[in-house]
Amino acid sequence: MADAKIRLFLEQPLGAGQPVPLTQEQAHYLFGVMRLGKGAGVLVFNGRDGEWRAEVAEAGKRGGLLVCAEQTAPLRVPPDLWLMFAPIKKARTDFIVEKAAEMGVRRILPVQTRFTNSERIRQDRLQAHAVEAAEQCGGTFVPEVCDLVALDRLLADWPAERRIMWCDENMLGARAGLLAGAGETEPRGFEEAPKSPSPGPWAVLIGPEGGFAEAEQARLRRMEQVVPVSLGPRILRADTAAVAALTLWQSVLGDWV
Amino acid sequence: MADAKIRLFLEQPLGAGQPVPLTQEQAHYLFGVMRLGKGAGVLVFNGRDGEWRAEVAEAGKRGGLLVCAEQTAPLRVPPDLWLMFAPIKKARTDFIVEKAAEMGVRRILPVQTRFTNSERIRQDRLQAHAVEAAEQCGGTFVPEVCDLVALDRLLADWPAERRIMWCDENMLGARAGLLAGAGETEPRGFEEAPKSPSPGPWAVLIGPEGGFAEAEQARLRRMEQVVPVSLGPRILRADTAAVAALTLWQSVLGDWV
């Protein structure tokens, strides 16, 4: 089999010897755009069965067939972490979704706050961005991108056990705040922190560029699940804050440890 | 004085009562583009004297005069941290410079590695990006963007006391690696780490998308200043890696503590 350099996300089941009939779109991409021929290798994943090396068995204009040869990577599911953010300008929203997929989150929730400008998002387009990011970064999992939801509504039904890392200004030191919120009553060394196998369900909340409204802040402060965390002494743009917050969470409580 | 919402970086000295003669370009921006008139307020900084609220004393087409009223923020110099990265596609290189300015570094060094595609950068354009990022994120300091330099040459003259956080795959856990490299012989808790006032001079090194060549890796491994650090189990794009690495450094050794 030729060296497989293309990584393709698809919905079909994958397994040893499993034939994978291709949709017209997939066939167009592999045979029309990427010019693969019969016998060529391709890496495929579906977010459930890990990554597989597959071989082109039939190549046509409107369809084709891959056959899975061997698993090249197991499914790696990220920790149970959600990212909530207020959509901003298109390019930066795309960026946040791409980065969240790279950094390892389970679910991406665009939220509408009082100071969020955008009233709608293209969920399908953002989901496609998450898929593309996973294809490019070697991921075997694709986070689910949800539709835009009002923060107020989301918080009204918030699960009791899911903690929220609220990235806010003028808070405790970055890691100390996160550790304290993770149940550490007094600052302990990181190496002693309750670092896994599972930190439990969490979400990271990034504010809109204009910050949260007074009422939103008050509500967040009242919620027991909320852990306010500082992202340093400088003001970060929302897209920077998203990557920084996910790094902090992953390196303190997640799978970067 | 009207509410000052515009933040402007300029080279002129700033101080109480200090008159600031404007260049033609600055006058064009303030009076032509932003339509400020006499008496209007503007926030100015020069990277040395903190942030000042100034008032328009004279407004002309080819020049004008501001007068500094009061200091609104002291100069905040970031820790002695450099960011070295291999330039990538234009938009992502711009992004790295913008993020580095937001996250707090002293100097930005684009480096040419064996697997770096670009042979040249527009230093002036990148420096302007750093200025713009500082203007927008409320910074009072602007990192210096250097010209492209070959990694080999840079490392040949590397200062003995400046440690390098080398972001590489298959390394120690993110923070454990950094702490160990910071002189911690055995893993200690973060709270006990030597966290300030100064961690000493450091640099963060982000590889090109294709990774480092064998010879480069061998050289880095031989250098005593080099501290290899993992950025988690997923492959990160260079721009994501830059923000993640700076977050890690700032939250463990820098001024986010």
Automatic annotation (TrEMBL), chains A, B:
Q: Show where the Ribosomal RNA small subunit methyltransferase E methyltransferase domain sits.
A: 80-250
Stored SUPFAM superfamilies: alpha/beta knot, PUA domain-like
Residues covered by the Ribosomal RNA small subunit methyltransferase E PUA-like domain: 22-63
Query: What NCBIfam families does the entry give?
Result: PRK11713.3-5, RsmE family RNA methyltransferase
The record describes the protein's role as: Specifically methylates the N3 position of the uracil ring of uridine 1498 (m3U1498) in 16S rRNA. Acts on the fully assembled 30S ribosomal subunit.
Protein family according to the UniProt entry: Belongs to the RNA methyltransferase RsmE family.
Q: What is this protein called?
A: Ribosomal RNA small subunit methyltransferase E
Organism source for this protein? Cereibacter changlensis JA139
Q: What is the lineage of its organism?
A: Bacteria, Pseudomonadati, Pseudomonadota, Alphaproteobacteria, Rhodobacterales
